Amino acid sequence: QKEVEQDPGPLSVPEGAIVSLNCTYSNSAFQYFMWYRQYSRKGPELLMYTYSSGNKEDGRFTAQVDKSSKYISLFIRDSQPSDSATYLCAMILSGGYQKVTFGTGTKLQVIP
Amino acid sequence: GAVVSQHPSWVICKSGTSVKIECRSLDFQATTMFWYRQFPKKSLMLMATSNEGSKATYEQGVEKDKFLINHASLTLSTLTVTSAHPEDSSFYICSAYDRGQYEQYFGPGTRLTVT
After folding, report:
1. Closest residue, chain A, to B43 (C-alpha)
2. pLDDT tens for residues A40-79?
3. Which residue of A72, A87, A108, B99 is surrounded by the most CB atoms within 10 Å?
4. CB neighbour list of residue A59: distance below 8 Å, 6 or more residues apart
Protein backbone atom coordinates (compact mmCIF):
# COMPACT_ATOMS: atom_id res chain seq x y z
CA GLN A 1 0.00 0.00 0.00
CA LYS A 2 1.31 3.42 -0.94
CA GLU A 3 1.70 5.93 1.85
CA VAL A 4 -0.34 8.48 -0.05
CA GLU A 5 -3.06 7.64 -2.55
CA GLN A 6 -4.40 10.15 -5.04
CA ASP A 7 -6.59 9.63 -8.08
CA PRO A 8 -4.49 10.65 -11.10
CA GLY A 9 -7.49 11.77 -13.12
CA PRO A 10 -7.68 13.47 -15.52
CA LEU A 11 -10.56 15.49 -14.17
CA SER A 12 -12.41 17.76 -16.60
CA VAL A 13 -14.88 20.35 -15.36
CA PRO A 14 -16.64 23.35 -16.91
CA GLU A 15 -15.54 26.82 -15.96
CA GLY A 16 -17.22 27.99 -12.77
CA ALA A 17 -17.63 24.52 -11.31
CA ILE A 18 -16.59 23.52 -7.83
CA VAL A 19 -13.68 21.10 -7.93
CA SER A 20 -12.97 18.53 -5.25
CA LEU A 21 -9.56 16.89 -5.08
CA ASN A 22 -8.78 14.21 -2.53
CA CYS A 23 -6.02 12.14 -1.01
CA THR A 24 -5.91 9.36 1.52
CA TYR A 25 -2.89 8.34 3.53
CA SER A 26 -1.91 5.40 5.64
CA ASN A 27 0.64 6.79 8.11
CA SER A 28 -1.15 8.40 11.04
CA ALA A 29 2.14 10.11 12.02
CA PHE A 30 1.83 12.65 9.22
CA GLN A 31 1.24 16.03 10.79
CA TYR A 32 1.59 18.63 8.07
CA PHE A 33 -0.46 18.59 4.91
CA MET A 34 0.08 20.58 1.75
CA TRP A 35 -1.39 21.04 -1.67
CA TYR A 36 0.84 21.97 -4.57
CA ARG A 37 -0.09 23.08 -8.06
CA GLN A 38 2.20 22.13 -10.90
CA TYR A 39 1.91 23.46 -14.40
CA SER A 40 3.37 21.46 -17.22
CA ARG A 41 7.19 21.44 -17.18
CA LYS A 42 7.35 23.62 -14.09
CA GLY A 43 8.23 23.03 -10.47
CA PRO A 44 5.46 22.61 -7.87
CA GLU A 45 3.97 25.73 -6.32
CA LEU A 46 2.68 25.64 -2.76
CA LEU A 47 -1.05 26.46 -2.57
CA MET A 48 -2.15 25.51 0.91
CA TYR A 49 -0.45 24.38 4.09
CA THR A 50 -2.36 22.97 7.08
CA TYR A 51 -1.42 21.40 10.34
CA SER A 52 -4.54 20.38 12.19
CA SER A 53 -7.82 18.76 11.28
CA GLY A 54 -10.44 21.14 9.96
CA ASN A 55 -10.78 23.64 7.17
CA LYS A 56 -8.48 26.37 5.95
CA GLU A 57 -9.63 28.86 3.35
CA ASP A 58 -7.60 31.08 1.05
CA GLY A 59 -9.55 32.88 -1.64
CA ARG A 60 -11.18 30.33 -3.91
CA PHE A 61 -9.28 27.46 -2.30
CA THR A 62 -10.29 25.49 0.78
CA ALA A 63 -8.15 22.74 2.27
CA GLN A 64 -9.78 20.20 4.52
CA VAL A 65 -8.03 17.70 6.77
CA ASP A 66 -9.67 14.80 8.58
CA LYS A 67 -6.95 13.07 10.56
CA SER A 68 -9.32 10.50 12.02
CA SER A 69 -10.14 9.26 8.52
CA LYS A 70 -6.66 9.99 7.11
CA TYR A 71 -8.29 11.98 4.36
CA ILE A 72 -7.49 15.39 2.95
CA SER A 73 -9.28 17.46 0.34
CA LEU A 74 -8.79 20.58 -1.70
CA PHE A 75 -11.84 22.46 -2.97
CA ILE A 76 -11.64 25.04 -5.72
CA ARG A 77 -14.62 27.34 -6.09
CA ASP A 78 -15.51 29.15 -9.30
CA SER A 79 -12.86 27.23 -11.20
CA GLN A 80 -11.06 29.05 -13.99
CA PRO A 81 -9.21 27.79 -17.07
CA SER A 82 -6.03 29.08 -15.43
CA ASP A 83 -6.59 26.48 -12.69
CA SER A 84 -5.85 23.75 -15.23
CA ALA A 85 -2.79 22.02 -13.83
CA THR A 86 -1.75 18.97 -11.86
CA TYR A 87 -2.51 19.17 -8.17
CA LEU A 88 -0.33 17.21 -5.79
CA CYS A 89 -1.16 16.51 -2.20
CA ALA A 90 1.82 16.20 0.08
CA MET A 91 2.54 15.59 3.70
CA ILE A 92 5.43 15.53 6.14
CA LEU A 93 5.91 13.86 9.46
CA SER A 94 7.10 16.83 11.48
CA GLY A 95 8.95 20.03 10.76
CA GLY A 96 9.51 21.50 7.35
CA TYR A 97 12.99 20.08 7.11
CA GLN A 98 11.71 16.55 6.85
CA LYS A 99 11.23 14.95 3.45
CA VAL A 100 7.94 15.51 1.73
CA THR A 101 5.84 12.54 0.67
CA PHE A 102 3.80 13.33 -2.42
CA GLY A 103 0.69 11.86 -3.94
CA THR A 104 0.84 11.03 -7.62
CA GLY A 105 -1.08 14.18 -8.54
CA THR A 106 -4.46 14.78 -10.15
CA LYS A 107 -4.54 16.43 -13.52
CA LEU A 108 -7.31 19.01 -13.70
CA GLN A 109 -8.66 20.61 -16.83
CA VAL A 110 -11.13 23.48 -16.59
CA ILE A 111 -12.98 23.91 -19.85
CA PRO A 112 -14.05 27.45 -20.82
CA GLY B 1 7.29 33.61 -1.03
CA ALA B 2 10.96 32.81 -1.22
CA VAL B 3 12.59 32.12 -4.57
CA VAL B 4 14.58 29.09 -5.58
CA SER B 5 16.26 29.02 -8.95
CA GLN B 6 17.69 26.19 -10.99
CA HIS B 7 20.19 26.29 -13.79
CA PRO B 8 20.02 25.20 -16.49
CA SER B 9 16.30 24.89 -17.13
CA TRP B 10 16.86 22.43 -19.98
CA VAL B 11 19.96 20.53 -20.96
CA ILE B 12 20.64 18.00 -23.68
CA CYS B 13 23.77 15.91 -23.41
CA LYS B 14 25.33 12.91 -25.04
CA SER B 15 25.41 9.52 -23.41
CA GLY B 16 28.52 9.07 -21.26
CA THR B 17 28.99 12.72 -20.39
CA SER B 18 28.36 14.39 -17.03
CA VAL B 19 25.90 17.17 -16.34
CA LYS B 20 25.79 19.58 -13.41
CA ILE B 21 22.54 21.16 -12.22
CA GLU B 22 22.57 24.07 -9.80
CA CYS B 23 19.95 24.93 -7.20
CA ARG B 24 20.10 28.33 -5.51
CA SER B 25 18.02 29.94 -2.80
CA LEU B 26 17.94 33.58 -3.84
CA ASP B 27 16.68 35.43 -0.79
CA PHE B 28 17.16 33.09 2.14
CA GLN B 29 19.70 30.70 3.54
CA ALA B 30 18.88 27.04 3.16
CA THR B 31 20.62 24.63 5.48
CA THR B 32 18.74 21.77 3.85
CA MET B 33 17.94 21.22 0.20
CA PHE B 34 16.20 18.30 -1.43
CA TRP B 35 16.60 16.80 -4.88
CA TYR B 36 13.65 15.15 -6.63
CA ARG B 37 13.18 13.37 -9.87
CA GLN B 38 9.92 13.34 -11.75
CA PHE B 39 9.00 11.08 -14.64
CA PRO B 40 6.21 12.05 -17.05
CA LYS B 41 2.79 11.83 -15.44
CA LYS B 42 4.37 10.60 -12.21
CA SER B 43 4.84 12.17 -8.84
CA LEU B 44 8.05 13.57 -7.45
CA MET B 45 10.47 11.00 -6.15
CA LEU B 46 12.90 12.15 -3.50
CA MET B 47 16.46 11.30 -4.47
CA ALA B 48 18.48 12.80 -1.65
CA THR B 49 18.58 15.29 1.18
CA SER B 50 21.44 17.74 1.05
CA ASN B 51 22.73 19.45 4.19
CA GLU B 52 25.16 22.33 4.01
CA GLY B 53 28.68 21.28 4.86
CA SER B 54 27.98 17.57 5.14
CA LYS B 55 27.41 14.56 2.95
CA ALA B 56 24.04 14.11 1.32
CA THR B 57 21.64 11.43 2.49
CA TYR B 58 20.42 9.33 -0.39
CA GLU B 59 17.13 7.49 -0.63
CA GLN B 60 17.13 3.75 -1.10
CA GLY B 61 17.85 2.76 -4.66
CA VAL B 62 19.55 6.02 -5.64
CA GLU B 63 23.17 5.54 -6.73
CA LYS B 64 25.45 7.85 -4.79
CA ASP B 65 28.26 7.60 -7.29
CA LYS B 66 26.02 8.42 -10.19
CA PHE B 67 24.17 11.35 -8.67
CA LEU B 68 26.77 13.47 -6.91
CA ILE B 69 25.39 16.13 -4.61
CA ASN B 70 27.35 18.99 -3.17
CA HIS B 71 25.95 21.61 -0.79
CA ALA B 72 28.90 23.91 -0.47
CA SER B 73 27.12 26.99 0.80
CA LEU B 74 23.86 28.03 2.42
CA THR B 75 22.48 29.17 -0.91
CA LEU B 76 23.79 26.62 -3.39
CA SER B 77 23.46 22.89 -3.92
CA THR B 78 24.55 21.06 -7.05
CA LEU B 79 23.52 17.74 -8.53
CA THR B 80 25.93 16.14 -10.99
CA VAL B 81 24.67 13.28 -13.11
CA THR B 82 27.79 11.34 -13.99
CA SER B 83 28.17 9.20 -17.10
CA ALA B 84 24.63 9.99 -18.10
CA HIS B 85 22.55 7.47 -20.01
CA PRO B 86 19.22 7.86 -21.81
CA GLU B 87 17.38 6.35 -18.84
CA ASP B 88 18.59 9.31 -16.76
CA SER B 89 16.47 11.60 -18.90
CA SER B 90 13.98 13.15 -16.54
CA PHE B 91 12.79 16.31 -14.84
CA TYR B 92 14.96 17.14 -11.83
CA ILE B 93 13.55 19.47 -9.20
CA CYS B 94 15.20 20.85 -6.09
CA SER B 95 13.61 22.37 -3.03
CA ALA B 96 15.14 24.46 -0.28
CA TYR B 97 14.05 24.62 3.32
CA ASP B 98 13.66 28.10 4.78
CA ARG B 99 14.07 27.60 8.49
CA GLY B 100 12.70 31.05 9.23
CA GLN B 101 9.43 30.30 7.47
CA TYR B 102 9.20 26.57 8.24
CA GLU B 103 8.55 25.98 4.58
CA GLN B 104 10.10 24.30 1.59
CA TYR B 105 10.27 26.16 -1.68
CA PHE B 106 10.65 24.42 -4.99
CA GLY B 107 12.77 25.38 -7.93
CA PRO B 108 11.34 25.49 -11.46
CA GLY B 109 13.02 22.23 -12.42
CA THR B 110 15.62 21.15 -14.94
CA ARG B 111 14.74 18.94 -17.86
CA LEU B 112 17.58 16.60 -18.76
CA THR B 113 17.59 14.79 -22.07
CA VAL B 114 20.37 12.29 -22.70
CA THR B 115 20.80 11.25 -26.31
Report:
1. A104
2. 888 888 898 888 788 999 999 999 999 999 999 999 999 9
3. A72
4. none
